[in-house]
Design goal:
By secondary structure, the protein is of the alpha/beta class. The protein has one domain: Alpha-Beta Barrel (TIM Barrel), CATH 3.20.20. The protein has eleven helices and twelve strands. Strands 2-1-12-11-8-5-4-3 form an eight-stranded parallel β-sheet. A two-stranded antiparallel sheet has the order 6-7. The model has no long low-confidence stretch (mean pLDDT about 95).
Length: about 350
């Protein structure tokens, strides 16, 4: 085998014992989980915003950003439910580049997975303790979910992972919403199959155990656009795309039909400023059709303190080192506008 076994990492139960969630914080998470679940069950008309940096690269800046979100959340709490993005592992198309805080707690230093595990747990724990936010993260590595399972209120499965069996089966064992992105090639059937698998019961191997999942009724779609055979980006957030998704849901018999629309990635062609226009377009479509109003539960927006993106090593505080993001002033104005348009 052409790899070196560097060191044995702690088990999730040991990391959780070292960095525990108190009873008070667990109660906050339980309340948040129920509030979010009510949206997916159609019992609450609040609109979800899964919003934050493309990747969580700097603890101080991420917590600064989340503190700003907390103040906005308090102002729009009657209409909007914010789930901050703290994405701590970053999928790479070619395998090269910054892979997230899990790999590199300090982007300027070599990978250190032990420090990374501690860093991501402490970051999610701080968001809960200091700002009463339980957050979203991407399930890039299904086996690692247990390190954060008592802290997360939302999980996304990326476009390159949606077809993977272990992601689908692990999602079926979670009791929080899991969003399945459409694949980069755009085949919605792949996404719908992933949702179906995640909503069913399964027996499988997880972290060396034979486990039985109960199925996740909150598994749902994330529309993020796609690329055609020539590499051209094709959006799938338009009214007609959402109607087609509604029709697929109608024919599927799946529980709690829902979609979160990703305003960046292939939907914007990674033109991050387009996210504001796309958000308005989706809200307009939602107002035109009763079933879309029910199905479109929220938006996924990439946002940070400073507009755009930078190269690793530039050290611009609060600016993304991966995909470009909306800056804070535009983000705050957009959240307020969304709340106003929700009526």
């Amino acid at each position: 085998m052409n790899m070196r076994f560097y060191r044995k990492l702690p088990m999730p139960i040991d990391i959780k014992a070292e960095f525990p969630v108190s009873e008070d914080l667990a109660a906050i998470k339980a309340a948040r989980d129920e509030e979010i679940a009510r949206v997916f069950r159609g019992e609450s008309d609040k609109f979800l915003l899964i919003i934050g940096p493309c990747s969580a690269d700097n603890r101080e800046a991420v917590l600064d950003y989340i503190g700003r979100l907390r103040r906005v959340q308090d102002r729009v709490a009657d209409k909007v439910l914010i789930i901050p993005r703290i994405y701590t592992n970053k999928p790479r198309t070619t395998g090269d580049g910054y892979k997230g805080m899990l790999h590199q707690p300090n982007p300027d230093e070599r990978p250190d997975m032990l420090k990374g595990i501690v860093a991501i747990r402490e970051l999610h724990l701080s968001a809960l303790r200091d700002y009463a936010f339980t957050c979203a993260d991407e399930m890039l590595y299904p086996e690692n979910h247990r390190y954060l399972s008592d802290l997360l209120s939302y999980v996304a499965v990326g476009a390159r992972s949606t077809e993977n069996q272990q992601h689908r089966l692990t999602a079926s064992g979670l009791n929080i919403p899991v969003g399945m992105k459409n694949p980069t090639g755009g085949d919605i059937s792949v996404m719908m199959n992933a949702i179906t698998a995640a909503q069913h019961k399964h027996t499988f191997i997880y972290r060396g155990w034979e486990v039985e999942s109960q199925g996740n009724p909150y598994a749902h779609a994330i529309m993020r656009g796609y690329q055609d055979a020539t590499g051209k980006t094709i959006p799938n957030y338009h009214y007609e795309d959402l109607i087609r998704l509604h029709e697929r849901y109608e024919a599927s018999g799946l529980l709690n039909p829902a979609v979160i629309v990703d305003t960046n990635h292939a939907n914007s062609g990674k033109q991050y400023l387009e996210q504001m226009r796309i958000a308005r377009d989706i809200l307009y479509s939602r107002r035109q059709h009763t079933e879309l109003h029910k199905m479109v539960k929220g938006l996924m927006i990439e946002s940070y303190i400073e507009d755009g993106a930078q190269k690793i090593g530039n050290h611009v505080y609060g600016q993304s080192i991966t995909d470009p993001c909306l800056g804070w002033e535009k983000t705050e104005a957009l959240i307020e506008e969304i709340a106003d348009k929700l009526g």
